[in-house]
């Protein structure tokens, strides 16, 4: 949302549907925001929010169709089973933004983090990935969330 993607979304509609994944911090100003809102209301664009801070813009909070959280082997979790801090800021816990209280749990996705540190033994990366994956599966089962996997990484694509 930091860049004006509204012209691209407008050009793709109505022949294509666009899904935007955003941290949720920004909403386009002025006419761009109005045009994006129109595209969302007409089902040409949908928003998935993957929060990185405690703040999500009110328009994104209102219009998001799904929320996505990354689970690591070491994620600090709240009572709701969602991570407290972002994988991008793991040492600064700030209780990541949460979906609205009436949001359907099946529209909350947990995605295991892919650890692929080139400076680490591949076996260690694989073990970290397995732990993150098992944690995400367990949290989904316990809280009614959905599991989201990065299929391109599982099948070995960049």
Give your account of this protein's structure.
- It is a single chain.
- The chain contains five helices and five strands.
- The protein is of the alpha/beta class and about 160 residues long.
- Strand 1 (about 20), helix 2 (about 30-40) and strand 2 (about 45-50) form a beta-alpha-beta unit.
- The model has no long low-confidence stretch (mean pLDDT about 90).
What are the defining features of this structure?
alpha/beta, 158 residues, globular
Outline of the structure:
With 158 residues, this protein is of the alpha/beta class. The protein has helices spanning 6-12, 30-41, 58-63, 122-143, 151-154; strands at residues 18-22, 45-49, 66-71, 108-112, 146-147.
Count of DSSP strands: 5
* Overall pLDDT score: 90
Q: Between the first and last Cα atoms, what is the distance in angstroms? A: 24 Å
Counting DSSP H or I runs of 4 or more residues, the number of helices is 5
Shape: globular
What oligomeric assembly is this protein in? single chain
Structural class: alpha/beta
Give the DSSP E fraction (strand runs of 2 or more residues). 5-15%
Strand order of the largest sheet: 1-2-3-4-5
Amount of helix: 25-40%
- SSE topology string: HEHEHEEHEH
- Supply Rg: 17 Å
Largest sheet data: 5 strands, parallel
Q: Low-confidence parts lasting 5 or more residues at pLDDT below 50?
A: none
Number of domains: 2
């Amino acid at each position: 949302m930091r860049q004006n993607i509204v012209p691209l979304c407008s050009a793709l509609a109505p022949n294509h549907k666009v899904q935007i994944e955003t941290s949720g911090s920004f909403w386009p100003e002025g006419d761009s925001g109005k045009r994006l809102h129109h595209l969302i209301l007409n089902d040409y664009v949908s928003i998935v929010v993957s929060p990185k801070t405690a703040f999500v813009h009110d328009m994104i909070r209102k219009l998001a169709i799904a929320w996505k959280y990354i689970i690591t082997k070491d994620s600090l979790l709240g009572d709701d089973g969602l991570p407290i801090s972002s994988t991008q800021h793991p040492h600064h816990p700030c209780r990541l933004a949460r979906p609205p209280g009436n949001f359907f749990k099946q529209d909350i996705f947990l995605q295991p983090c892919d650890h692929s540190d080139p400076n680490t033994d591949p076996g260690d990366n694989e073990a970290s990935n397995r732990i993150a994956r098992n944690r995400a599966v367990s949290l989904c089962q316990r809280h009614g969330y959905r599991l989201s996997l990065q299929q391109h990484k599982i099948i070995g694509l960049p």
